[in-house]
Design goal:
Blueprint lengths: L1 E5 L6 H12 L1 E5 H11 L1 H8 L13 H6 L2 H25 L3 E5 L14 E6 L2 H12 L3 H19 L5 E4 L6 H14 L1
Parallel strand pairs: 1-3, 1-4, 2-3, 4-5
Length: about 190
């Protein structure tokens, strides 16, 4: 079984995915980690498209401000097929072991593996709640919050084409453990 989890940054995708994985003995595929490792492994192609400043931060991390200022859509068209192939490999490893794969990524609706998902879950949270979570978790404030808002705008059309089987409203007082257990019950009953 393959479960897709999508939603805006700070909505609670990762928290939900990890909680659900514990309950159903699944394995989470972290979309951000897959995306970033794909960039690192394709360093030359990314720099050719985006310029040398793309990997300008220490330790070879992607400079997200630089990324947002440049032709992000063009880069996505080139890199997302590579990301999709990586997801397919990881999901095949997990399901090959007889485990359930849970794909956790905000851009999931943009890649082909979304069509292989048996269950698609959308995690939603109010903008203020999400931004408060980002500020607390990733110390995002000021100029970095502007980037988060810009990413939200870019994600809106992506998430609008997502057709979830289950939608979860994750407010400040949602107990994600209870929600995960309820979703697990639904999955076991099907």
């Amino acid at each position: 079984m393959i479960i897709g989890v999508a939603g805006y940054s700070g909505a609670g995708k990762s928290t939900f995915s990890k909680s659900l994985a514990e309950i159903i003995r699944g394995e989470v595929v972290d979309g951000d980690a897959v995306w970033m490792s794909t960039f690192y492994e394709n360093h030359e192609v990314c720099c050719k498209i985006m310029g040398e400043g793309f990997f300008g931060k220490p330790h070879g991390t992607v400079d997200t401000e630089y990324l947002c200022r440049r032709a992000y859509k063009k880069l996505r068209r080139i890199v997302h097929p590579l990301v999709n192939a990586r997801f397919e490999e990881k999901v095949a490893e997990i399901t090959g072991r007889g485990s359930i794969a849970i794909i956790d990524w905000c851009f999931l609706p943009e890649i082909d593996i979304v069509n292989a998902c048996d269950v698609k879950i959308l995690i939603e949270a109010a903008t203020a709640v999400r931004h408060n979570r980002l500020a607390a978790r990733k110390n995002i404030h000021g100029a970095k919050m502007k980037i988060a808002r810009k990413r939200d705008r870019g994600l809106r059309p992506v998430l609008q084409k997502y057709e979830p089987t289950i939608t979860i409203q994750n407010s400040e007082d949602t107990d994600i453990g209870i929600v995960s257990r309820n979703v697990a019950k639904i999955l076991h009953s099907t």
